Amino acid sequence: MKILITGGAGFLGSHLCRALLGNGHRVICVDNFITGQEKNIEELKRNKRFSFIYHDITKSLYIEERLDWVMHFASPASPKDYLKHPIKTIKVGTLGTHNCLGIAKAHQARFFLASTSEVYGDPLVSPQPETYWGNVNPIGERSCYDEAKRAAEAMTFAYFRQHKINVRVVRIFNTYGPCMRFNDGRVMSNFIYQALTGKELTVYGEGNYTRSFCYVDDLIEGILRFMEVDYPGPLNLGATYECTVLELAKKIIALTGSKSKIVFCPLPSDDPKQRKPDLRLAKKLLGWKPKTSLTDGIKKTIDWFKEELEKGRKFQIRSPQ
Ligand code: NAD
Ligand code: UDP
Fold first, then answer.
1. Distance from the CA of 116 to the CA of which of 75, 151, 196, 259 falls in 20 to 30 A?
2. Measured from the CB, is residue 183 less than 6 Å from ligand 2?
3. Is the pLDDT of residue 140 over 70?
């Protein structure tokens, strides 16, 4: 198949490009590197079935060769990134999704939207099932991301209903693994980088907020299975082991053998207090559940971060702020 992936040079997009090339498909990756990294696709560029288009997907894009799938991953995803680029984040969630749906319609292609658990906002129910409508502050600092993704879901379902586009909407819960940017500001990359470089681990608030962390390989497998099932979504994908941020910090210090200390910093505004997916639908539809334990996933991620640090890097490493 011929598959267009927006945001293909990002953390998740690059894993997906690699998996699809591995399955024999042709992959066209579109990215403007606003939060992605060229090094994520360097090795993929050597594959004849891979091509890269440097493009901002909020602007029109015409692809000549017939596409089978359009997978829309482009968007800043870390709170630090989308707080820095709130307007670009809203634009890629709305205009970018509109453009991708237009491409899917023109090609009669299957459309995939990488939505997010953030559509549930600061949830009042836990775990969060797909039927929960969420608790989002429409004008808060995070709204550029949350509301853009909610609009993206609405736009996707409008195309599904009006133009009968074959769509798949996944609400991705916190996912981590190799190829995250050291300084992307997310808790997993911050803590691992801080622990490996002897810096203090920055726990926000008292560290009692919770998240459930999914290892990237499990997520990609879930997404690929979902593409083959005849159901538009939305579908939660993630992991169900819920841990506090403080527990995560201590675990990373132990697994890296670091001498780093923990420092408590102010909480960001509208930070969801807890997050854990209800995965019953994913299990029923896909027979899927995440396989990698938190300990094993963190160990693999630490190994990758260590290797990257040791390589000395071609690009500049900045400390997480
Ligand atoms: P990322 O920041 O690593 O990747 C996003 C990619 O999109 C980057 O390569 C960036 O340069 C590109 N991009 C952004 N705006 C663009 C534009 N206008 N035109 C072209 N390219 C653009 O983030 P990620 O973690 O890989 O997230 C990928 C997708 O998955 C996002 O849509 C995000 O909302 C969703 N998601 C991720 C998580 C997670 O835990 N990683 C959780 C929920 C949802
Ligand atoms: N967090 C933290 N220290 C950090 C980065 C994040 O304590 O250096 C907390 C953050 O306040 C949130 C959780 O970790 O409660 C997850 O944050 P992240 O930015 O990874 O993603 P989110 O789930 O909020 O989108």
1. 196
2. no
3. yes
* Cα–ligand 1 centroid distance for 257 (angstroms): 31
The answer to whether 225 and 286 are in contact (CB under 8 A) is yes
Q: Of 179, 219, 173, whose CA–CA distance to 9 is shortest?
A: 179
Residue 243 amino acid letter: C
pLDDT single digits (tens) 167-182:
999 999 999 999 999 9
In a domain, 309, yes or no: no
Straight-line distance from the first to the last Cα atom of the chain, in angstroms, rounded to the nearest whole number: 41
Count of the separate structural domains present in the chain: 1
Give the model confidence (pLDDT) of 217-232 as tens digits.
999 999 999 999 999 9
Contacts for 81 with CB less than 8 Å, ≥ 6 apart:
34, 35, 89, 184, 185
Nearest CA to ligand 2 atom 21: 186
- CATH number of the domain residue 62 falls in: 3.40.50.720
Contact 84, 201 (CB under 8 A): no
Average pLDDT of the segment spanning 286-308: 97
Q: How many residues does the chain have?
A: 321
Note whether residue 210 is domain-resident. Answer: no
Residue 250 within any structural domain of the chain: no
Query: Is 310 among the domain residues?
Result: no
- Residue 287: what pLDDT? 97
Q: Is 74 in the pocket of ligand 1 (CB under 6 A)?
A: yes
pLDDT surpassing 60 at residue 315: no
**E-assigned strand segments in 104-144:** 110-116
The residue range of the domain holding 162 is: 2-172
More confident residue, 41 or 317: 41
Our answer to whether residue 145 is catalytic in this structure is yes
Catalytic residue among 54, 82, 120, 145: 145
Name every residue whose Cβ is closer than 8 Å to that of residue 251 and which is 6 or more positions away in sequence: 243, 294, 295, 298
CB of 14 closer than 6 angstroms to any ligand 1 atom: no
Q: How many CB atoms lie within 10 A of CB 274?
A: 18
| Ligand 1 mean position, distance from CA 6 (Å) | 8
